[in-house]
Design brief:
The complex is a heterotrimer of chains A (421), B (356) and C (310). Chain A is an all-alpha fold and 421 residues long. Chain A is 70% helix and 1% strand. A two-stranded antiparallel ribbon of chain A has the order 1-2. In chain A, strand 1 and strand 2 form a beta hairpin. By secondary structure, chain B is of the alpha/beta class. In chain B, strands 1, 2, 3, 4, 5, 6, 7, 8 and 9 form a 9-stranded mixed beta sheet that branches. In chain B, strand 1, helix 2 and strand 2 form a beta-alpha-beta unit. Chain B is globular, with a radius of gyration of 21 Å. Chain C has a domain of 214 residues: MetI-like fold (Orthogonal Bundle), CATH 1.10.3720.10. The longest helix of chain C has 32 residues. Classes of the chains: A mainly alpha (421), B alpha/beta (356), C mainly alpha (310). Chains in contact: A-B, A-C, B-C. At the A-C interface, helix 2, helix 10, helix 11, helix 12 and helix 16 of A face helix 1, helix 5, helix 6, helix 7 and helix 8 of C.
Chain lengths: 421, 356, 310
C-alpha cells in the first residue's frame, strides 16, 4: 500500500528524465556536490563562529561601548541631551550633577563613573568618589556648593568629557589609542608630547617584527637549503634539530634564554673567559630590545624554515645544472635561477613569521624589560587595570594590522599553500 | 552540539561546587608561609579542603572575575589600598568585624588589631616592607647604606632591580632625593612632585631591570643580574636564612604597608571563606604566619608572643619592618593617597616606561 | 649534497663557510634546549651555573628538583602509607600533568575530528567560497592569542548571553579550556590534512567506485589510509599546541584546571624554581619520542604514496 505512490513517483521521474535538459541536471548535480562539500565544513565553521568569532566580536564591542558614566548619571545625561555641545554648565547642570552624585553614592557607582571620566581627564576619579561621599550634605545652590569642595568641577574639559561619556557609545578609546584627546569645545587634538605612546609603540611593534622576520629569513635560508639538498635520511635527522625547539615549551625556551643571555649567564661568561670582553663590560643581552629579538627569532625560526624547506625540496636541480653548463657562475646561477624559484617559500615564511611576531605577548613580557615590550603587552597592561574598553580598542587596532597582513598573505601566497613540515 | 557543551559545562560546574576554599595569593615564600600557617591547619581543623593559587597581585584577576560574573576564588590576599579601592567599587564582600575572634589574651578584636588594620571588606594579615637589598659579596669597599645610594650609579656602578609599578617606587625616589618621609605624599599629590620623582627615576632608567613578581628580586641578586634591587623584605630574609645567601637589607627609606585577606563578591563558598579569614587572622593564625616569613602581624596579642622562625633559632623581632631599629627613616604607604591616585599614576608610570 | 666535480677552489671555500654557518645556526636552535638539562640538576634554587657545578663537585648537583616535582603540594610527603594516593591526588605537578593530558587528549580528538572533516570538504573541487572559509578557519592561528583569550574569557563567563539567557559558565571548567584549545588546534589539522589531500589522486576514488565500493567503504579503505599520516601529524600538532598553551589557560582555567605550562608560568614568575627545568628535561625527552614517531609515519606515508626518498 505504502509503496505504491513511491513507485509511481519513480516511474514519473524516470519518464520525465530525458526531458530535463542536460544543463539543468548538471547544475543540480553540481549544487548537490557543493552542498555536500559545504556540509563537511559546516560543523567546524559553526564551531569557529561560536567559540572564536563571536567572543572576539563581543570583546571588540567594548571598545566603543562603556556605560560606566551614562548608567550612573541619569540626570546629567538628560541635561546634556537637552543642551547643545559647548554649553556652559549652569545651575541646572550642577543640580543634575548633585542629584547624580547622590544616586552614585546610594548605588556605589561613583568609582565606576569616575573611572570612565578619568580615562579622558586623568585625576578626576577621586573627584567623583570624594564628592559622592559627601553628596548627601550638598544643598542648593549647587554650583557654589560643589565649587567649594573642589575647584576642578568648573573645568570645561571635565564637562566636555562628561558630555562625551553621557552616551555609552564612544570613540574615546580609539582616540586615546591614536594619542588624541578631546578639547573643551568638542574638537580633538594630540595629547602632549610625553603621553604620545601608542602610535610610536604600534610602529615599533611592526618595525621590531620586521627586524625579527629579516633575521629569521637570513638564518632559515641556508638551513632550509642544506636540509633540502641533503639526502633524505640525513635531512630528516637534522630536521629534528629544527622541530625539537618548535615542540619544546615556549616558557622553557624563554627561561633557558634567560640563563644563556643574562649578564652572569653562559654567553657572557664564555665571552669573558675567552677574553673578548672585560668582566665589567658584560653585554646587556636580555631584559631589553635585544633580548626580545634574540628569543623571538629563536621561537619563530621554525616557522620560516618549514615553508622554505617544503618549497626548496621540490626545486629540481636540473635548471641550476643547465645554467652552469651554459657558463653562468655559481653566484649568477643562485641569483637568477635558484632564488626566484624559492620566492613562494620566502613569501610564505616571511608573512607567517611577521604576523606571528606582531601579536607576540609572552616572550616580550618575560625578557623584554621596558623597551622590548610590544603592543600586545599594552593590551595586557590595560586588562590588568580592568580598563577593558581601552584594551579592546588597542586589540582592534592590532587585529586590523594583522588581518591586513593576513589578507595580503592570502592574495600573494594563498592560505592553502601553508605547509608545516 | 551546543546542548552537548552545556551539559558538559553543567557537569563540570557540579564538580567545582564541592566546598573547597580557594585562596589566591602572591606565591613564592610568601604563598608558602600562608600555605603552612593558614591553609594546612585550617584543613586539619575543619576538614574543609583548601587550594592555593599564585599570582603577582590578586587585585587584578579578582576584579576581572567579579566583572565577568565568574568568581573562582574565595579568599584573596591583597594590599590594603587595593582592598579599600575594590571595596568602594563593590568588588569585595563586606566582612563583619565583630565576628573576628578576640585576642588570645582576651582583648576584643577591635582593640587588638592595629588601627586601620580591619576595614569594611578586608582584615589585615601582615605588615611588610619594600626595602633595598644587595649582595654583600659584590662590594669590596664601602657598602650601600641608604636609599640615596640606590640612585648613585657613580659610586656604585651596576644594574638596579625595581618593581614595575609606581607604588613604593615613586615614594622611594622622592625619599632618595631628600624629601622627608612626612612630606612624600603631599609632594606626590602635585604634578611637580610627581615630575620630581620621575626625573629622579630618569637618572637610573637605563640601568633598571624591572621585576613584577616578589620571587624575582632574590633571583636577580643570586644571578648577579643586578647590584641592588628593591624587594619585599620577607623574600630577602628567606633567601638569606634558608639558602644562606649573602643578602643584606637597607632599611633606610623602607615603605611599609599592610596586606590583607579579602573575599571577592560572589565567592562560591562564602561561609567557608569567612571561617577561613576568621581562623587565619586569629592571634595564633597571624603569629604562625610570621614564623615562616618576616612580616609583622597587625595584632598586639600576636606581637606579644615571641615568634621564632621555622628553623627553630632565629628570633623574628629584629627582622620585622616594625622593629624600631628598622623604622628610623620609614614611610607608611598612604592608603588614601593610592586609592585616589592609583589609576592616574599607573597611567603616567606606564607612559613613562614605554616612552624612551 | 656533494660539490659537483667542476667546483673551483673558491666554491670549495664557500662551501666550507656555508657549512660552518649552518652548524652555528643549528647550535643556536638547539643550545637553549641543551642548557636546561644540566641546570635541572642544580642543587640551588636559582637558574645559574654555580661554581660547584662547573667544577663538577657532586655537592653542586642534586636531584632535588625532580623530587620536588613529586612532593610539591603533597599533604604528607614523609608518610609512608598512602604515599601513592597522596601523590596522585595532591602533588601539584602530577595534577598539572594529569590536567594537561586530559585537556590535550580531548581537545586533540575534537580538533582532529572537526578539522579532518572540514579539510575533506575544503579539498573538494566544488566547495563554495573555499578561500574565504579556509581563511576564516585558519585565522585562530594568526589572531594574537591575547585577543582570543580575552574574548573567550568574557564569552565563556556567560556563553548563553547571546541568546539572552543564563546557563552557567564555561570558564573554570575542563570543557571551557578544551573548547579553547580545540579552536587553537584546528588550523594545524586543516593545514596538514589539506596538504596530504593536495597530493591525493582523485581517480583513486573513481577507481574504487568502479570496482563496486560504496562511499563508506571508499572512505575507510581508500581515502582514510592515505590521509592518515596527515591526520596524525595534524593531531600531534594540535596536541602539542594544547600541551604548550598558557595564555588561554591563564584566562579561562580555574584552580582545578592548572596545566603544566600554567604551573611553569608560576615557576618562572611567582615561585621561581628550577623544578620547571626538570619538567622541561622530561618534556624534551617526550618530544624526541614524538618526533621519532612522526618521522616513522612520514616514511610510511611516502612509501604508500609511492614517493621515494632521494
Amino acid at each position: 500500500m505504502v509503496d505504491l505512490p513511491r513507485i509511481a513517483v519513480q516511474a514519473a521521474t524516470a519518464a520525465a528524465g530525458p526531458e530535463i535538459p542536460l544543463k539543468a541536471r548538471l547544475a543540480r548535480a553540481q549544487a548537490r556536490a557543493r552542498r555536500r562539500a559545504f556540509l563537511l565544513v559546516l560543523p567546524l565553521l559553526l564551531f569557529i563562529l561560536l567559540t572564536f568569532v563571536i567572543p572576539i566580536g563581543q570583546m571588540l564591542q567594548r571598545s566603543i561601548y562603556h556605560d560606566g558614566f551614562s548608567g550612573a548619571a541619569p540626570a546629567l545625561v538628560e541635561w546634556f541631551a537637552a543642551t547643545p555641545a559647548g554649553t556652559e554648565p549652569d545651575e541646572t547642570a550642577f543640580a543634575a550633577l548633585a542629584s547624580d552624585l547622590l544616586f552614585m553614592k546610594e548605588r556605589k557607582l561613583a568609582g565606576e563613573a569616575g573611572t570612565r571620566i578619568n580615562y579622558a581627564v586623568p585625576g578626576s576619579r577621586s573627584l567623583f568618589t570624594a564628592a559622592a561621599r559627601g553628596a548627601d550634605r550638598l544643598t542648593a545652590p549647587y554650583r557654589p556648593a560643589l565649587m567649594a569642595e573642589d575647584g576642578k568641577w568648573a573645568d570645561p574639559l571635565l564637562w566636555a568629557a562628561m558630555r562625551e561619556a553621557a552616551s555609552p557609545w564612544t570613540t574615546d578609546f580609539y582616540l586615546s589609542g591614536i594619542d588624541m584627546q578631546r578639547t573643551a569645545n568638542g574638537g580633538i587634538e594630540r595629547v602632549d608630547e610625553g603621553s604620545r605612546v601608542y602610535l610610536a609603540l604600534y610602529a615599533k611593534t611592526f618595525l621590531l617584527s620586521a627586524v625579527i622576520t629579516i633575521i629569521c629569513l637570513a638564518l632559515a635560508f641556508p638551513v632550509a637549503h642544506l636540509l633540502a639538498t641533503l639526502p633524505m635520511a640525513r635531512a630528516n635527522l637534522l630536521m629534528i634539530l629544527v622541530l625539537l625547539p618548535f615542540w619544546t615549551s615556549l616558557l622553557v625556551r624563554t627561561t633557558s634564554w634567560i640563563v644563556l643571555l643574562q649578564s652572569q649567564g653562559v654567553i657572557n661568561s664564555l665571552l669573558v673567559s675567552a677574553g673578548f670582553i672585560g668582566d665589567d663590560g658584560r653585554l646587556a643581552l636580555i631584559y631589553n630590545r635585544t633580548g626580545t629579538i634574540i628569543v623571538m627569532v629563536h621561537i619563530l625560526l621554525p616557522f620560516m624554515v618549514l615553508p622554505l624547506y617544503s618549497v626548496m625540496r621540490v626545486i629540481p636541480p636540473v635548471y641550476a645544472r643547465a645554467a652552469r653548463s651554459l657558463g653562468a657562475t655559481s653566484w649568477t646561477t643562485f641569483r637568477r635561477i635558484y632564488l626566484p624559484q624559492t620566492l613562494p617559500g620566502i613569501g610564505a615564511g616571511v608573512l607567517l613569521v611577521f604576523i606571528l611576531a606582531v601579536g607576540y605577548y609572552i616572550t616580550p613580557a618575560l625578557v623584554g624589560g621596558a623597551d622590548g615590550q610590544l603592543f600586545s603587552n599594552q593590551i595586557q597592561f590595560h586588562m590588568s587595570k580592568s580598563n577593558w574598553s581601552q584594551a579592546a580598542a588597542l586589540a582592534a587596532m592590532l587585529l586590523a594590522g594583522v588581518l591586513l597582513l593576513y589578507w595580503l598573505y592570502d592574495r600573494l601566497v594563498g592560505i592553502d599553500k601553508l605547509k608545516l613540515g | 552540539m551546543k546542548k552537548l557543551f552545556l551539559s558538559t559545562a553543567a557537569s563540570c560546574i557540579a564538580f567545582a561546587a564541592q566546598a573547597d576554599v580557594t585562596v589566591m595569593s602572591w606565591g613564592g615564600t610568601y604563598g608558602a608561609a600562608q600555605l603552612e600557617a593558614h591553609l594546612k591547619p585550617f584543613t586539619a581543623k575543619t576538614g574543609i579542603r583548601t587550594t592555593m593559587v599564585d599570582t603577582d597581585n590578586a587585585a587584578a584577576p579578582i576584579r576581572a572575575m567579579v566583572e565577568a560574573g565568574n568568581v573562582t576564588v574565595d579568599v584573596a590576599s591583597i594590599e590594603l589600598a587595593d582592598a579599600i579601592r575594590l571595596c568602594d567599587e563593590g568588588i569585595l564582600e563586606s566582612i563583619d568585624a565583630t565576628t573576628l575572634p578576640d585576642g588570645s589574651d582576651g582583648t576584643p578584636a577591635s582593640d587588638d588589631f592595629f588601627p586601620g588594620a580591619v576595614t569594611d571588606c578586608a582584615v589585615g594579615t601582615d605588615l611588610w616592607a619594600n626595602i633595598i637589598a644587595f649582595d654583600t659579596t659584590k662590594f669590596e669597599g664601602e657598602k650601600p647604606s641608604q636609599a640615596a645610594d640606590f640612585f648613585d650609579t657613580v659610586k656604585f656602578p651596576g644594574k638596579r632591580g625595581l618593581k614595575k609599578n609606581p607604588k613604593a617606587v615613586l615614594e622611594l625616589a622622592l625619599m632618595a632625593d631628600g624629601v622627608p618621609a612626612a612630606e612624600v605624599y603631599s609632594n606626590l599629590a602635585t604634578s611637580e612632585g610627581q615630575g620630581r620623582a620621575f626625573s629622579k627615576l630618569d637618572t637610573i632608567k637605563q640601568d633598571i631591570i624591572w621585576w613584577e613578581a616578589g620571587a624575582q628580586p632574590p633571583q636577580l641578586l643570586a644571578d648577579g643580574e643586578v647590584l641592588m634591587t628593591t624587594a619585599y623584605n620577607g623574600r630577602i630574609f628567606n633567601a638569606s636564612i634558608d639558602e644562606g645567601k649573602p643578602f643584606e637589607i637597607i632599611w633606610d627609606g623602607q615603605v611599609y604597608e599592610l596586606n590583607t585577606y579579602a573575599i571577592p563578591k560572589g565567592a562560591t563558598n562564602l561561609e567557608e571563606a569567612m571561617e577561613f579569614v576568621r581562623f587565619a587572622t586569629s592571634t595564633e593564625g597571624l603569629a604562625e604566619q610570621a614564623r615562616y616569613i618576616s612580616y609583622g602581624p597587625p595584632r598586639h596579642s600576636s606581637n606579644a608572643l615571641e615568634i621564632i622562625y621555622k628553623d627553630g633559632k632565629t628570633v623574628m623581632g629584629p627582622h620585622l619592618p616594625s622593629s624600631p631599629e628598622n623604622r628610623r627613616n620609614a614611610l607608611e604607604t598612604s592608603v588614601d593617597f593610592w586609592v585616589d591616585h592609583d589609576t592616574e599614576l599607573n597611567e603616567r608610570f606606564n607612559n613613562w616606561l614605554i616612552a624612551n | 649534497m656533494a660539490l659537483p666535480p667542476y667546483a673551483d677552489p673558491l666554491e670549495r671555500l664557500w662551501r666550507i663557510i656555508y657549512l660552518v654557518i649552518c652548524t652555528l645556526i643549528f647550535l643556536f636552535l638547539i643550545a637553549p634546549i641543551l642548557v636546561i638539562i644540566p641546570l635541572s640538576f642544580n642543587a640551588e634554587p636559582y637558574f645559574t651555573f654555580t661554581e660547584k657545578m662547573l667544577t663538577f663537585d657532586p655537592a653542586g648537583w642534586s636531584l632535588r628538583w625532580y623530587e620536588a616535582l613529586i612532593s610539591t603540594g603533597m599533604q604528607a610527603p614523609d608518610a609512608a602509607d598512602g604515599w601513592w594516593s597522596d601523590m596522585w591526588a595532591n602533588a601539584a605537578w602530577v595534577k598539572a600533568a594529569r590536567n594537561s593530558l586530559i585537556i590535550g587528549v580531548w581537545s586533540t580528538i575534537v580538533a582532529t575530528g572537526l578539522g579532518t572533516l572540514a579539510a575533506l570538504g575544503l579539498a573538494r573541487p566544488d566547495m563554495p567560497y573555499r578561500r574565504l572559509i579556509m581563511a576564516l578557519l585558519i585565522s585562530p592561528m594568526i589572531v594574537p592569542i591575547i585577543i582570543v583569550a580575552t574574548g573567550m574569557f568574557f564569552f565563556f563567563s556567560n556563553p548563553c548571553s547571546i541568546i539572552g539567557v543564563e546557563c552557567g559558565r564555561l570558564t573554570s571548567t575542563y570543557a571551557g579550556v578544551i573548547l579553547a584549545h580545540v579552536v587553537l588546534g584546528t588550523p594545524f589539522v586543516i593545514i596538514t590534512v589539506t596538504a596530504t589531500l593536495s597530493g591525493f589522486d582523485q581517480s583513486l576514488i573513481r577507481a574504487a567506485a568502479s570496482l563496486g565500493a560504496n562511499p563508506r567503504i571508499t572512505f575507510f579503505r581508500v581515502i582514510m589510509p592515505l590521509i592518515l599520516p596527515g591526520v596524525i601529524s595534524g593531531a600531534l600538532f594540535a596536541f602539542v599546541t594544547s600541551f604548550d598553551e598558557v595564555v588561554a589557560v591563564l584566562f579561562i582555567a580555574g584552580p582545578e584546571q592548572q596545566t603544566i605550562p600554567r604551573q611553569m608560568w608560576n615557576g618562572i614568575r611567582e615561585q621561581i624554581s628550577p623544578a620547571i627545568l626538570a619538567v622541561a628535561t622530561i618534556l624534551v625527552v617526550v618530544s624526541i619520542a614524538l618526533l621519532t614517531i612522526l618521522e616513522l609515519l612520514r616514511r610510511r606515508s611516502d612509501r604508500l604514496r609511492g614517493v621515494s626518498g632521494r
